[in-house]
Structure formats: C-alpha cells, structure tokens
Amino acid sequence: MWIPRELDATVRQAADSRPAVVLSGCRQAGKTSLLVKAFSDHRYVSLDVPMVAEEAEHSGGDFLKRHEPPVIIDEVQYAPTLLRHVKADIDLHREENGRFLITGSQDFSLMEGVTESLAGRSSVLTLHSLSAREYEAWSGTSLDRAALVEWMLKGGYPELHSRGLDAERFFSDYLATYLERDVRSVLGVRSLRDFDRFMRLCAARTGQLVSYAALATDLGVSPNTVKSWLSVLESSKIVVLLEPYFENLGKRIVKTPKLYFLDTGLASYLLGARTPDDLLRSPMLGALFETHVLGQIVRHFANQGRRHEIYFYRDHHGHEVDFLIPSAGRFALVECKWAESPGVTSRGFAELEALVGPDRIVSQTIVTPDRGSRRTSKIVTIADSVSLAFLSSG
Predict the structure, then answer these.
(1) Helices in the chain by DSSP H: which ranges?
(2) Cα separation of 152 and 181, whole Å?
(3) Same domain assignment for residues 112 and 54
(4) Are strands 100-104 and 71-74 parallel, antiparallel or unpaired?
(5) Are residues 307 and 385 in the same domain?
(6) In this predicted model, what pLDDT tens digit does every residue of 309-330 receive, in sequence order?
(7) Is 250 found in the same domain as 141?
(8) Which residue range is the domain that position 244 belongs to?
(9) Between helices 145-154 and 264-271, what is the axis angle to 10°?
(10) Residue 23 and residue 46: Cα distance in Å, rounded?
C-alpha cells in the first residue's frame, strides 16, 4: 500500500526545472518507490545488479544508449563514473528537463560525483523515512503519548507500516544489508562485529555530546577510526551531528557536536528496546523523544527541498537550548520536554535571550508529546499536523 510522501511535490517541481534530480537518503526510505510512482513514463534501471553496474561503470555511453532518457537510475553509487556520461548527455540536451532521476544511498560517493559532474545541472534532494505527519495523514490516526511511544519504537521506514512487517526482523535484516553492502564496500572494515558494536554505542548516545575518545576507548580503536566510522553513518543518513551555536557568545560555550539518530526505530532496536514498556522504563526515553523532535524538524525542511541549518546551545554552567533554527540573524528556539506538565519557561531560553538580545529571538517553543497538556503560545505537540508552524518564521 502506497504511503503519500510530502517530498513528492518538491521532486516534481525540481524535475520540471532541472535536467537532473539527484535523490539521496538512507536505505529503505522509499526513494525508488517515490520516483517510480511519480514518473511512471520514465524508464527504470537499477545498478543494484552487479552486471548492470559494471556496464554502467565501464561503458557509460553504451549504457545510456540502451537506457535512453528520460530514465530513473537507481543506486548510482555502484557506478559513479556514469555521472560523467550523464553530464555529457545533459550538455547535448540542455533545454530538456527531467531527463535523469538519480538515486543513491551513500551520500559520500554520490555527492562527490554530483559535485564534479552535475554542478549547475541538477537539483539535489534528500528523502528520509516517514515523518510523523506523513504517518498521521496516511493512517488517519493521531499520535498521542501512548501512540508516540509505539511510533518511536517502530520508526518511520515505510515498509514497516505499509506491509505491516515485524520491526525486530526488519531491523535485523536492515543492519545485515547495511553492514555487508555499504560499510564493507566503503570502509573495508575488517570486523563488522566491531562496527555493529559501534552503532549500538552510538545509539546509547543519541541526543548527547560526542566524545570520540570515549567511543574509541570502549571499542579499542583510535579516535580517528571513530571519526571515520561516524562520517559513514552521517553520510548514509543514519545519524546527524548537530553543531553548537557559539557565535560571539564567549569562551564558555560548549563546542562539541551532539549525535542524533535520524530514525528512532533503528535507535530503539540498537538499544535493545522491543516493546513500548521497554521504552517507557528506559533512561533513554527523554533522549529518544528529543531525537524524534529533531527528526521531524529535519524532515520538515528536507521535504521542502530546503537545506536548513539547525544548532544547539549549551554553556559550561548547564544552560542549554535543544535546538536553534537561524534565519537572517534571528532564531527560533525549541526545547523538548517529555514531562506531562512542562513549564512555559526555560532557563536556556532566558540565558540565550540575554546573550543575543530579545530582538533576535523569533519564537520560543516547548515541544511535548501530549495534546492534553496545558497549552500556551510556547507549548506545542510535535504530533499535531500544525506542530511545525513555529518554523515558518525560520
């Protein structure tokens, strides 16, 4: 059963205005399904098949003659040199838009090819797993506190919902595929067991400051190895590293990035949570809710085709704001509270407002999981269909 995606309109608009559209994102986010459904008149070829990928890599010109545009080219990271031939074709047909719709699951190799070959010729978009808003619209259900726990446990990979798959089996297979096909091919990791351990340690740190040294010690590897492995998770759209905001705020501001998983279902699986009760009893519940909120903000911008900066603020006195969303020198501030009756003020909000000045603060929002919580202009629930309205000014 097809689940409508908010990125659909953005992809169509991009294909109407650019010769190529490059759609990246993690495995199983639904990239192929989205393009095939939206562009049924395009030919389709997958480079996931080794023989096909070999032809595309070594005989790109002949490959494009066999698969004439307009065409969807799936998993282009398996034949990166093909992009040079795509560039040549676009230059011969520069007035024709939507000739190439290209997907890739490994942003590191894909974006390198796009930068070298398709600069100025393509629109680059990212598709993440389902947002809570997409799920609510498709299912016709509302994510109250209880349903939100189940959502965070299962996550937003479309097949889990459209086909009613077992989450534990899905994530077990997902990790096996990801480790074997992506990680081994890119990093040449000798022990995939070590990388699996690394992912589980990262899940236990979602919503926390990154300590390369601590991770390296726990794994028995060097800090540089940890940085390399994290870059793979980040480029694969498994995690995001959120940078701190410290412009002109003095030397007492924390400058270490924070680590967040982009899908709470995968994070929950890696943490060993298998039931809603496991999450409710977990000391990671608050961090997973914060992870969920960031994921919705990231999806909000990505589904509009916007690459928007998001920061956090923390100083050495413990004052913090979970998310800062800048726009033209001003900020929307967001704080996440799992508590049933959150206050309407935040010490972090007050501290940051004092540092940058009230005129630079567009909004101050406390996000809670409850529709039934006390509502003020500063409290919203991320599950509401209008819950991201506070971002419009950002």
Answers:
(1) 7-17, 31-38, 50-58, 60-66, 82-92, 107-117, 132-139, 145-154, 158-162, 167-177, 184-187, 192-203, 212-219, 223-235, 264-271, 276-280, 285-302, 347-356
(2) 26
(3) yes
(4) parallel
(5) yes
(6) 999 998 878 789 999 998 888 8
(7) yes
(8) 132-391
(9) 80
(10) 14
CA distance 22 to 102: 5
pLDDT in tens, 188-238: 666 778 888 999 999 999 999 999 999 999 999 999 999 989 988 998 899
Number of Cβ within 10 Å of residue 317's Cβ equals 9
- Tell me 315's DSSP state: B
In this structure, the answer to whether residues 243 and 327 fall within a common structural domain is: yes
Query: Can you tell me the distance from the alpha carbon of 286 to that of 273, in angstroms, rounded to the nearest whole number?
Result: 14
Which of 10, 7, 3, 105 lies closest to 48 in space, CA to CA? 105
Which tens digits make up the pLDDT trace of 48-76?
899 999 999 999 999 999 999 999 999 99
The answer to whether residue 341 sits within a structural domain is: yes
How far apart are alpha carbons 303 and 321 in whole angstroms? 25
| 8 Å CB contact between 293 and 382 | yes
Q: Let me know how long the chain is.
A: 394
> How many CB atoms are closer than 10 A to CB 247?
9
Q: What's the structural domain count of the chain?
A: 2
Dist CA 117 CA 149 (whole Å): 44
Q: Does a structural domain hold residue 239?
A: yes
86 in the same domain as 18: yes
